[in-house]
Amino acid sequence: MTSISRKFPHLRQDFTASLVVFLVALPLCVGVAVASGVPAELGLVTGIVGGLVTGLLPGSSLQVSGPAAGLTVLVFGAVDSYGLAALGVIVLATGLIQLAMGALKLGRWFRAISLSVVEGMLAGIGLVLIAGQLYSAAGLEAPSSGVDKLIGLPGAAADALGSTEALTSLALGAGTVAVMVLWKRLPKAAQTVPGALAAVGLATAVTAAFGLSVATVEVSGLLDVIQPPGADAFGELANVGLLGTIVAFTLIASAESLFSAAAVDRLHKGPRTEYNKELMAQGAGNTVCGVLGALPMTAVIVRSSANVSAGARTKASRVMHGVWLLLFAALLPSVLALIPLPALAGILVHAGWKLIPFRSIVPLWRDHRGEALILVVTAVSIVAVNMFEGVLIGLALSVVKTAWEASHLKLEIVDKGAGPIQAHLTGNATFLRLPKILESLEALPQDRPVELDLSGLHHLDHACRTALENWAERHTSAGTDPVKVTEPATAAV
Predict the structure, then answer these.
(1) Helices 240-265 & 275-292 angle (0-180, nearest 10)
(2) Strands (E), 342-488
(3) How many CA atoms are closer than 13 Å to the CA of 228, on its beta-carbon side?
(4) Residues with Cβ within 8 Å of residue 205, at least 6 apart in sequence
(5) Which of 230, 298, 316, 366 could be 14's S-S partner, Cβ–Cβ 3.0 to 4.6 Å?
(6) Helix, strand, or coil (residue 311)
(7) Predicted confidence (pLDDT) per residue in 230-262, tens digit
(8) pTM to 2 decimal places
(9) Nearest to 338 by CA among 488, 211, 165
């Protein structure tokens, strides 16, 4: 025992933390799978791979990977459009691209994505997730698009009020949410059992005790659901839409994982994340998940923060949590069949709510309205159009905003009534500000000499330089003295 303690000095802390993470991960793995429209066991497969494969690899030592609520909407859409068989191809391709990006040391560039875009992405996912799971909580079929989900809620509520079974199902889902919200107010001793697990356990017990007529999880068996993609599935790669889905999976899974890593680094004082290695670890995990036909994985902040809070010290805790998931899936699969679907819907409604940054929107609007606008537009675009195009719209807005701010320019005209007119340009002269610059310069009197001082410019792009030269030539051709130009202090072109 002493030799084991010497070899693994933190084994006790990691073992305890692994049990906590397992209990947090179990209901989430199942819930995400059901909400994604795939067999519940595939969520466990992804959780197992996240522990046993990604958990062993270098990158971020304490963050835990598995199926994430943030990809639920995208996975459901992909399965609905291309079939379950194509999911393995999509996830496999995502993993290979992540491995390549990590090898090319592109991981750090994901940290350059605007935080407002990421928060808007998560908010949009949260809105669609909540709307969709409200239908599931009532035992109703949800519409396919995000807009239809939201618009159809009043009608769904009316249908639920007229059905005893729907009201029973909805009450069970609402009770699950209430337990999770109130669980944090209990004494710390009670909170050693994760709220999600307690809520699902209570809902399962109530369903069994009162014989409630609600839908439960369908169980197929772990080996039966593992279906590597075949040749027909790979043939779908010729579909442009599927290629766009792969890009969306890669972008969102990578960004969510690396942003999670940054958040986890703030929770502990241990080794910092190596972003390129972490991206490759996520890629390795997704490659294995793709081969097995399972759900995509990301690093999950809920499990990761639980891991840190439980006292984990090394990556052993996340590996062991994968072992516990494997043992559960292999030895106790029939337990899944007892879990009521409204309880899982309640868990995901709670997860979706936490994806929406309610607390930060008002301060962001007060201090940085442009960033707040990007967040809101990204979220609304995801709901109105789809995940991939919504994120692209957010990224495009972010680039435009940055370009606009980077082109800050001030033009000061000094006219003493006699002698040349002095025009001083300071800041960054880019094509975005060109119309305003030319409008002001062309308004100057044609019969007066002009001194154009560019020494205060930090940047002068080619379009602006050419336009200013053409303006100076036109001004001079009117018969006045040539425009005297003072060049920028730095060679900015």
Answers:
(1) 130
(2) 409-414, 421-429, 450-460, 484-486
(3) 4
(4) none
(5) 316
(6) coil
(7) 888 898 888 888 998 999 899 889 988 887 787
(8) 0.75
(9) 211
